Amino acid sequence: MAQIRDIKSGRFGAPPREPMPRRLAAIVAGDISGYSRLMQIDEEGTHNRVKRIERELIEPSIVEHHGRLVKTTGDGFIAIFDSPVEAVRCSIVIQQNLVGRNAALPKHHWIEYRIGVNLGDVIIETDDVYGDGVNIATRLEGIAQPGEVFISGGIYEQIKHKLVCGYESLGDRHVKNITDPVRVYRVLSDPAALQQNRKRREGVLIFLLSLALLFIAGGALWYMLVQTGKLPNLASAPISPAAEVQKAPAAKRPAPPDQPVPTVAPTQQQAAPKPEPSPLVKQAAPLPPSASPSPATPAAQPATPAAASIRDPEMVALRGGSFAMGSNEDVSEKPVRQVTVKPFAMGKFPVSVREWNACAAAKACGFTATGKDDAPVANVSWSDAKQYVAWLAETTRKPYRLPSEAEWEYAARGGTQTRYWWGDQFQPGMVNCKNCSDILIADQPVKVGSLKPNPFGLFDMGGAVDQWVEDCWHKNYQGAPVDGSAWSENECSAHVIRSGSWRKDQNYARTSNRGSYDTNVRYPTHGFRVALSP
After folding, report:
1. By the 8 A CB rule, do 3 and 13 touch?
2. Cis before residue 343, ω within 30 degrees of 0?
3. What is the Cα–Cα distance from 197 to 215, expressed in whole angstroms?
4. Helix 353-361 vs helix 382-396: angle between axes, to the nearest 10 degrees?
5. For the whole model, what pTM was predicted?
6. pLDDT by residue (tens digit) across 304-316?
7. pLDDT tens-place string over residues 53-97
8. Which has the closest alpha carbon to 184: 167, 206, 203?
9. CA angle, 211 then 215 then 219, to 5°
10. What's the Cα-to-Cα distance from 119 to each of 187, 463, 478, 487, rounded to whole Å?
11. DSSP letter, residue 251
12. Which of 142, 155, 31, 169 is nearest to 81 (CA)?
């Protein structure tokens, strides 16, 4: 190592140490709630589960959202991101995925993280990160409830109009070892939750205020009537003899004058008992709307009013055939192979908000979607999509389902073998994607059917919303079925999504493009369409 001379002493020595690099970053701090209790219940099992979650969920999610895992502790982790949006998205994905992992376990075995996210200037070393920005993220994690994400005001200002979620302000909080108070927000992954809570609170407040005003107005009116003499003053009104009799003890009350009591013969006074209806009449009586048919009810019974009000989605019948599936543009789309698809029907449009909310109103789908009724529903997990098609099939008594990946690509190509269904060169205005038309990026894709259909008459087969299919995710097509069926397994943590979305660029709108996402996790651009077996 080169030496430099100390000017004052004239001595030579080692060069001065370079200052550690600093940068502005979004810091995510996560910690397992009740970790000590879980270790007491099952030390080895808890350790293995935590390591598996780190390996299968936390590390891949951080990488997917362009972050860096700085370190893990026994019960937590710290990561940094260049983008506050990606930091919060990653936090939401982790929390929602853990809900699915915990669903089959007793509550006292749940592994739940508390997550805090802050934007701050930090000092970065190889295996650690320092600074008040890290401390604030850790303090936010400490005050968060299990399963929740708390963010600082700095993060909120960066993401408030960029994510499909809600935020609840918790005000300024004083946190340990930080001089100034920190503005804190709770992230609500369901944007409707905050609105519902606010409306409920506003409704209660309005009711109480109305009741108070009514009571005050009633009292004032009574006082005015008493003062004008239109009503007696009960406090000074004389007590009538009848009232005195009522107030007197029962032993001192005067006996009432004898009154003749009319007597009627029982045969004339009592009405004849009503005859019991015959068993035939009972069987002919209509069932109440809430009554459920018995297992013996024949299939020919008319549909219930609720079922009759559910409209079948518009479908396009496809006769099936053979096509070359995949491409050489991405390793996940290889090898290109010949696939034969049987006849089936495909939804003409992605499932809309209106169609989804019919399922939610029937208590068969897990949440009520927000946005315009005729826009594609979004923020849907694969499990959500499966709930919808199961409800639709049961309600309509038709075998609705998710399409297989092969069926989806066959339908998207529309009988073509080009990069896009209209050709190899991208044409603006053909799909609803990022920078693909004069349509500005919004919180929601445009309404279904706004753009041109493909040669099969299907709309939004590219762009609009990412669309779930039945298949489990595999990194390529090696060993995939060639008969058009879904490539499924008993359990898989991720499923295939196709189409691209209104927030992704034109490359994602290619007919062969494919991606994956966690089975039980909702994401703001994910939707689906239905298929129907003949």
Report:
1. yes
2. no
3. 27
4. 70
5. 0.54
6. 445 546 789 999 9
7. 999 899 999 998 999 999 998 899 999 999 999 999 999 999 988
8. 167
9. 170
10. 15, 32, 43, 42
11. G
12. 155
